[in-house]
Amino acid sequence: MKKREIFNYFVLLSSVITFLCFFIWVTPSDYLYIYNRPFGFYKKTLGFDHIYCINLPSRSDRRGKIDIIAKFHDLDIDFVKAISSKDTETLDRYLTYGVAPQHKACYVSHYKTYELIVSNNYQSALILEDDVDFEVNIKDFLNEIQPFLPINWDMFYLGNCAWDTSNTIYYNGKNYGSDLLLSKSNRPACSHAYAVSLRGARKLLENLVNITKPVDVALIDLILANKIFSLSLLPSIINQWKSKDDPSDISPGAQDEPHNLKNSTLELFGYRR
Fold it and tell me: Looking at residues 7-16, what average pLDDT do you find?
């Protein structure tokens, strides 16, 4: 009888060990570290702890578009008051060199958002500018690539204005019948949609100071100097939305970038470029 009990004990122990090994294999440690819970618990923030959208109070038209996107995708988006280029009192608190007022205002708006991430102790946050459009299936795309995110990322571009990739590939969707490609960033352009980890926000507060270039270019310099570990997702799943009646606040005469979303949320609601 004693031998039988010992045998049953080892069978039970083996079963438990097998289950734990399987659980760890199908639930990568990176996934647990970044998101803490399965994606389903974070659907309203796309898998991140928080979503911020930088918006000038005078641009209620853009806020209206973001509200449409948020309602359609069932998202909680926290609006951050953007700094105006005319707010010299605030701008004078931040040292920059040779940066135009509108670019400095953009920089300070992003910098203050990093401060919010740190003060709230968010492990990760998505930062949006208010001129964006989302892929209709954005949650499906993020679900697809989440398990492949490396554990120590500082920034994660969900959209940029360049076809940014490198030789360091973390996920190649072609192996799974998908178009998505997740790689280490090289020269990501624009700052309209990127996530920042808590560690990344602290690094940015320390290193993104006394800038001499627009913030998106200054970020590239930090990435190339290996002061920030950044990822880029291609194709973009969040893109800039520009139209004749809604030009850029920072570069009003800039030409529109190719709008390479497969299925635009704003176009679904009748907006045209």
Answer: 56
